[in-house]
Write a structure and sequence with these properties.
Helix content is about 35%, strand content about 15%. The protein is an alpha/beta fold. It has one domain: TIM Barrel (Alpha-Beta Barrel). An 8-stranded parallel beta sheet has the order 2-3-4-5-6-7-8-9. It has a 3-stranded antiparallel beta sheet with strand order 1-10-13, covered by helices on one side. β5, α4 (about 120-130) and β6 (about 135) form a beta-alpha-beta unit. The chain is globular and about 55 Å long. The protein binds (4S)-2,6-dioxohexahydropyrimidine-4-carboxylic acid and zinc ion. (4S)-2,6-dioxohexahydropyrimidine-4-carboxylic acid (DOR) binds near residues 16, 108, 220 and 264.
């Protein structure tokens, strides 16, 4: 199946770029391909103020250099009890802060400063609804009594649905939706959309667990069942405007992925676009690929699609693609999606 498509330069509506040597090593993968990138704030300490967001933005731009003129990091701040509403409003009005990210405490990497229950922040969310500041949600219950694979559904039902009822004008993104419950939630709530990752589109819990646990596929929310994967694939390949690409690319050094405790996160910035293109091609829905990768998210956040274009060609490529990257500190990171990428070439027009 050989084919060529052109799409507006895509946006990544959810990405972790880290800081320091890791930022320097990974930022180019995002900056060379994507126009806008919604930057996650879960550094240690978290990006919790306008000033920290502005400084982080400048470090990202410096690390990206000037080879990618369209690339723009869009900054988020971390939702915690310390968040200063006046500072948020000022940062948003100044165009520095684009959204607030909510993490349930303990759900994932550097989420310790997050919330115990999203409903505790209603006052902040009313302000955000008035100011038209979007809320980005890591939708995962941390209740140990709830089965790991049911935690997205539980959070949506117990916390996010009541929030959407109480603050109906708040714009909400269910990040990295991982289940059919997440798909249904985005479809059922008017001001709610969902970002979707390449790995939740391409893999299921058997890939993660069999024949043995694969740390390279370990992320939060956990990659769920084949039925859930299929529900996500059908939602995104329908072209429905409530679904858009957010890679959740999240690099961790191999020393921390394969150590005593596997860190959650998959680095897919290098080949994630090919992974998604392969899904759309296999489903015979390549005509909706640009909606998912380049248009729906932009429309949801109030932007026009890029005027710049990328060309993707599906053909067998004979070059051996890299499987890891190295930072200047000597850390290695595994690149997700090499097999899919071997069928595609991606080039600027
Ligand atoms: O797998 C994940 N990794 N999920 C997240 O929500 C955070 C991310 C990270 O920062 O490593
Ligand atoms: Zn994330």
């Amino acid at each position: 199946m050989d084919l060529t498509i052109r799409i507006p330069r895509p946006d990544d509506w959810h990405v972790h770029l880290r800081d320091g040597a890791m930022l320097e090593a990974v930022v180019g993968y995002t900056a060379r391909r994507f126009r806008y990138a919604m930057i996650m704030p879960n550094l240690n300490p978290p990006i919790a103020t306008t000033e920290l967001a502005d400084q982080y933005r400048q470090r990202i731009l410096r690390a990206a250099g000037n080879q990618s003129p369209e690339f723009q990091p869009l900054m988020t701040v971390y939702c915690s009890t310390n968040l200063d509403q006046d500072d948020l409003i000022r940062g948003h009005e100044a165009g520095i802060v684009k959204a607030v990210k909510y993490y349930p405490a303990g759900a994932t990497t550097n989420s310790d400063h997050g919330g115990d229950n999203i409903l505790n922040f209603i006052d902040l969310f009313e302000t955000m609804a008035d100011q038209k500041i979007p809320l980005l949600v890591h939708a995962e219950s941390t209740n140990p009594e709830i089965d790991l694979f049911d935690r997205e559904a539980a959070f949506l039902e117990q916390e996010l649905h009541p929030l959407c009822e109480q603050v109906p004008n708040l714009q909400v993104t269910v990040e990295h939706v991982s289940t059919s419950a997440g798909v249904d939630f985005a479809l059922a709530h008017q001001r709610v959309a969902a970002s979707v990752t390449p790995h939740h589109l391409a893999k299921n819990s058997s890939d993660l667990m069999a024949p043995e646990f694969d740390p390279d596929l370990f992320c939060k929310p956990i990659i769920n069942s084949e039925a859930d994967r299929q529900a996500i694939v059908s939602a995104v390949t329908s072209g429905n405007p409530s679904f858009f690409l957010g890679t959740d690319s999240a690099p961790h050094p191999t020393s921390e992925k394969y150590g005593e405790e596997a860190k959650a996160g998959i680095f897919n910035a290098a080949y994630g676009l090919e992974v998604v293109a392969e899904i759309f091609a296999k489903e015979n829905k390549i005509k909706y690929f640009s909606s998912f990768a380049s248009k729906n998210g932009a429309a949801f956040y109030g932007y026009e699609p890029s005027q710049d274009e990328l060309q993707l060609t599906r053909e067998q490529v004979d070059v051996e693609l890299a499987s890891t990257l190295s930072t200047r500190d000597g850390d290695k990171v595994v690149l997700f999606g090499r097999d899919e990428a071997s069928h595609w070439t991606v080039s600027p027009i």
